Amino acid sequence: MQKRPLIVVKPIIRSTTKSTTKSIVKPEKAKSALRPGYDVKPVLQPGFKPDLKSDSLGFCLLGAANAVSQVSAGTALPQALAKIFVQTGASPQARGAMQDIAYRAMRQLGLSQTLIGLMTNKAPEPPMLHGLLCCALSLISNLNNSTDALPYEEFTVVDQAVTVATSHPDMAHAKGMVNAVLRRFLRERETLMKAALQRPEAVWNYPLWWIDAAKAVYPHNWQAILAAGDAPPPLTLRINRRKTSVDNYLKLLADNGMGARQIGFDAVRLDKPVPVAQIPGFGAGMASVQDAAAQMAASLLDVRDGMRVLDACAAPGGKTGHLLECATLDLTALDVDPKRLPRIQENLDRLQLSATLKAFDAQSKVWWDGRMFDRILADVPCTASGIVRRHPDIRWLRRKGDALQLATLSAKILDNLWQMLCPGGKLLFVTCSVWPQESEAQAAAFAVRHTAIRLPAPGQLLPEVGQDKDHDGLFYALFQKVAA
Q: What domains does the chain contain, in order, with CATH numbers?
């Protein structure tokens, strides 16, 4: 039987610094005290720049592995990648490859971690080594156990992963283990995959608590919900009707050799995703990137020219822009993070629209001038469990109790905003969650607390992948304040 490869750790000699405290050592124990120990952790160098060609797969693997290791420490994947792009000075092509590998690794993390557990006798350390194995395994494996859709030649991946380990001081001690694990997988793929797929985390690529929660809440379609979250997202555009029509824009896409399909009132899904810079008319504000479900907010609020509107928790500004495309408004965009306001402004500048931007917490009133709003969009903080296909790291960052904690925060925000709505005005409550405590339960409790009139709205939209329907999981509840 093939033995499991051992993780070889370079021994660390215990410090010989003298201590002022006397100790008594028995003669027969003196020799063992000189043996190397393994309990002193080495100083890691995650920012080390090895001599790897910037256009090589190894260079991109290292960047992706670093990002995956940062997610395991609690950093969101987009923020981790942004930092790595700057640190490495990666070219646009290398950034694209790093991002593709990291996102693929996140979508297959449950499977990769299970395979690593089957082939090693202890968790690989440091975290970047674990990240490297996860990234490499995601490039040579998939759930259908087919090699048809793999992005790189298998032995190229193995060679480049070993090269990365060899070149980095934090992983050089484990280059043999990296080689052994990956080659063993290639030799024993069928047996290892069969064993791994006995575990739900490997089948669905979610934490077990998330799988159990989906089963409990959606006993009849939990599989479809989880599967939708594992699929790469489409590139869906919102067409700016101030500048063009859906029919004319579809023709513009066709003239540029791009296939597309209308999947919503203003929503167009490209047959094949492309970089934003290649989207026709994007820079001129003819189209914006926005999921089809997220595009429902503007029409539900029924805004009209001259209205005073608040978009609370507004960043990155997709819904802000859509509202202003629909009518000429006195709109205030509020977000708690001042670093996110420039992103909103960039989108408005591209669309040639304007709004008042304020960096304040939606729980407070210190920013409010006392004038009532006709419409309020409350896209409140949530677990983002409905958009995991776009942000696959979310499932690994969240914890079981997060939904309840975020629902408590969101309730405070909704109660505060309701005071700013004029009689007869409408408030649209939105979350990108599929958990009821953040959505329907929250909406029902809010209506009771404030004797609010609940108007027709979609309610819970579950993630869906299809020819005519292709959208994330969002929740909508529309309320109207009783007229004075």
A: 46-204 (1.10.940.10), 206-232+296-484 (3.40.50.150), 234-290 (3.30.70.1170)
